[in-house]
UniProtKB/TrEMBL annotation:
Keyword entries, A-Z: FAD, Flavoprotein, Membrane, NAD, NADP, Oxidoreductase, Signal, Transmembrane, Transmembrane helix
EC number, as in UniProt: 1.3.99.23
PANTHER family according to UniProt: AMINE OXIDASE DOMAIN-CONTAINING PROTEIN, BLR7054 PROTEIN
Protein species of origin: Fluviicola taffensis (strain DSM 16823 / NCIMB 13979 / RW262)
Molecular function GO terms recorded: all-trans-retinol 13,14-reductase activity
UniProt keyword annotation of Lyase present: no
Pfam families given in the database record: Amino_oxidase (PF01593)
Name used for this protein in its record: All-trans-retinol 13,14-reductase
Lineage of the species this protein comes from: Bacteria, Pseudomonadati, Bacteroidota, Flavobacteriia, Flavobacteriales
Record InterPro entries: Amino_oxidase, FAD/NAD-bd_sf, Retinol_saturase
Amino acid sequence: MEEPQKIVVIGSGMGGLVTALILAKHGYQVKVLEKNHQIGGSLQVFSRDKRIFDTGVHYVGGLDKGENLYQIFKYLNIMDDLDLHRMDENAFDVIRLSNGQVIKHGMGYANFEKKLKESFPNNHQDIENICQEIRLYCSYFPLYNLELDSEINYIENSVVLEVGAWERLAALTDNEDLIKAVLGSGPLYAGIKGITPFYVMALILNSFIKGSYRFVNGASQIAKILMKRISEHGGEVLRRKEVVSVTYDEAGCIRSVICADKSEFVCDSVISNLHPTETIAIVGESNFKNPFIKRLKSLPNTVSSFMMYISFEENKFPYFNSNFYDYFTDNIWDEEFHFSEEWPQMTFTSAQVSKNTDEFAESISIMCYLDIKELKAWEDSVRTVVVEGERHVDYEEFKDVCVERILKRIETRFPGIRAHIKNVYSSTPITYRDYIATPGGSMYGFQKDFNQIHKSQINTRTHVPNLYLTGQNIIFHGILGATIGALVTSFNFVDNKEVIEKIKNYD
């Protein structure tokens, strides 16, 4: 009997785990190597005061029955084991502008339109046109719609990639507050005026309109269930295995990967879930063409964030089943990423769902944009569960200043919140950098720019014959983006028609 091909997957983020499971289901001998103690990348959680806090994923879209992520999760045999909580169908997201206007995003397009029309009664036709445009752009991406091909697609109509989100909406309405209302959830993709493509906004917003859910007691359950399924198909997920180098054979293919603890894994192919520049640093720049290296190094990454985590006194602060995007500036897509006197100009607030109570919130997470350059004084320090490095006292003092700034901001939108706080915890862009291994602590990898969209398009195949890429940089970010990227990567090894047919017809 022929030996199954050995596949090593570097990194246990969503893209790495999904790719590994698909290949394991098809008979490949898969090993996933994770540098941290906890698997899952941005799916990781931590516990304080007997409360669970999500570090990167606070809600997910496309999970209503029959929608794209729902069908993929059914195919992966993880959907039925997930403990999910459907968000407020009349206000899964709430956008609160600096002028006091409050706009709610409803689930389902009829409801989404209805809620926007309630806030903008004089712009009914504009709202209908905007929603029609969002759905039209989504139709240009076959795999997003669980198809391998379609009559209209972005490959033959690449102009759809070269349209700006803010710019397209400005052509559909002259009501700037309506534009802000639609783009108010821009922190989901680090939206920036003059840079972010309309298609990125459309694909992501559409998925949340099609079913928004929170994870009861944290998103790490996805990683744990995926790991269990990988194991059931003969694969392994190994922790504390930081890949630091590779060896090559005479044909220029990777023969093995070597970890920091000197362990070595011989393989037939390698799939990296790391950021592409991190991958190249491990496997060696000399194995890639100079123009490719220069292109990757020239690409800007999306911004990072400062995270604040609040645990509440028991049964004190009411649970809210919506996410709040609060703006303290009129220029919602021109926010200041640096630590200026006006920072923070935006806060994203999400409550953690708990099994213990559905009336009160045990904890919430608050995210604010922050450039990692603001932490230059501590950039050489590294601290994770595995690497117990030290930060300086002034680093903690800086964090305390940030926390107080954020508290003052959210008190204006959540009056009385401070009185119910038990403890406050925080993390910075260098925390995210250390745990997730993204340059600059970037939340979403490479920044997509409609002015030069082809520069940030990354192929799953590389110049090394048996090295492949997966993760959020392949298609777009988030759980859905990384999952679809994993499908694309797996198609280098399995029959794409067979897989898509099974996903579409899975009941």
